[in-house]
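Feature request, filed as a ticket because there's no other form

It would be nice if the structure record came with a short human-readable summary line next to the tokens. Right now we just get the raw output. Example of a typical job, pasted below so the devs can see what we mean:
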Amino acid sequence: MAYVSFEYFPGRTQKAKNQLEETVSVLAEYQPEFQSVTYGAGGSDKQGTFDAVVSMQATTGVPTASHLTYTGSTQEEISAFADDLWNSGIRQIVALRGDPRDGSDHLPFSDTPEFVAALKECHPFEVAVACYPEVHPKAQSLEADLEVLKAKQDAGATLAITQFFFDNSVFYEYVQKAREAGITIPILPGILPIYNFTKVQEMAEACGTSIPETIREAFLCREVCGSTDMEIAAEILKAQVSDLACAGHEAIHIYTLNRVPLAQVASETFLKTHEGLSSQRQVA
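Raw output as currently delivered:
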């Protein structure tokens, strides 16, 4: 059965917390399979993450995953945070290497597979991990990158969520190669709405994500076409998630940026496309 899931980040101000609460409440209407909350570099906002995760799960009833990174933290700090999550009823973690905080690049684990194994030893969490259709910037090759993902799976990861991408053909090819490499866990496509094209270009450049020329041209020509940025972004989203649904993918993970409008567009389009496909199969 088709489903959507959502990623949020903890609010730092009361206004941001109120916006997060409202966004989560609205998007919960799409009955997400799960939702997740990001974790600051070096655990810089771990209390905010913890409070958001526990509150969101309690108010929506949706299984909520906490992101957890290990760079810049100690094993003791990580174990304590994992214990607090488990004791508060949280059963899912998104395990990531993470970025250093304030120049601290202490690594309590040699790599993410070791981190995943440690979390599974701590408690029987469902552990999701990241993967990269266009290869992690620090990976030597796609093959090497897939070896790391396979090691994460072997360590106990049960789900992989991709870095955002805009070219579905890249994702389809990646999934095929991952299966050939022995990776059997679900690979969930990560979808990023474009609220600010300039910022998205900067993010894409930093993480090695390609932006198709058709998307660049759409935003460059918006004044000539008489379309707003939101209208363009919505059409791009509709095309991307419809194609994923038609290609047989049962789920998408939406990076909401704590905003409702485009997450709604992606959710409604994806789920309705699947409904239409299901109806066609029943008629046939």
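Something like this underneath would help us a lot:
The radius of gyration is 19 Å.
The CA atoms of residues 117 and 155 lie 5 Å apart.
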